[in-house]
Amino acid sequence: MNQRQREILEIIKQHGGFIAEYQLLQTLQAESPDFFEEVKKPVSLYRKHFFLFHQLYQMKDSLLDDGFQIEISPIQIQLVKIDQTGQEIGSTDPLAEFYLNEKNLYLSDEEIENMQKKFWQKYLALDKKAEAIKILKLESVEDLNLKIIKKQFNKLANIHHPDRGGNEKDFHLIKQAYEDLKCLF
Questions:
Q1: What is this structure's pTM?
Q2: 51 and 28 fall within a common domain
Q3: Are residues 17 and 99 in the same domain?
């Protein structure tokens, strides 16, 4: 564990084993003003966030040796005894892969904006998922995938398309449901 990681761990421990990311960032800036000096200018909020999460994900293996797991999210960073996490230690974590890749620290503003846009599209689509499945009449399908969704969309679109005598409102609902589900699969 490097010096920065020890500083992070000490702050987490001082806060009872859990802290919000924002609070951790504020504490680091107040207590260790040079914490982010390694990050190239301009030091944006994204780069601070990424650098912090990079350090946190790097700490995971060191903490395992001490019988602890660190749970990482923007809402809360928590230090937990391994027997309390209920997580498989060997499982893959796409977020860990992202934050351990140092190239992602220097994404362009456009790449960050696109990433945020995709996140919000998926988030909003999740909110609409159940309704979209119902509209496409896929409630009974257990292993839903994009191929099944597309096939059902085409079937219903052929029936409800206004050019084929269908109702424009129904066709629009079917098309929107397909777009919502397409983002998730």
A1: 0.62
A2: yes
A3: yes
Long-range contacts of 99-108 (CB under 8 A, 24+ apart): 99/50, 99/53, 99/54, 99/56, 99/57, 100/54, 100/57, 100/58, 102/54, 104/50, 105/39, 105/47, 105/50, 105/51, 105/54, 106/40, 106/47, 107/46
Q: Which residue range(s) make up the domain with 11?
A: 3-107
Same domain, 116 and 94: no
Two structure tokens written together for 176: 């929107």
pLDDT tens digits, 48-70: 999 999 999 999 888 988 888 99
Do residue 7 and residue 90 come from a single domain? yes
Q: Give the amino acid at 74.
A: P
Q: Is residue 127 a contact partner of residue 156, using CB atoms and an 8 Å limit?
A: no
At residue 174, what is the residue type?
Answer: I
**Reported confidence tier of residue 86, pLDDT bands at 50, 70, 90:** very low
**Residues 93 and 122 grouped into a single domain:** no
Which residue matches tokens 């390694």? 38
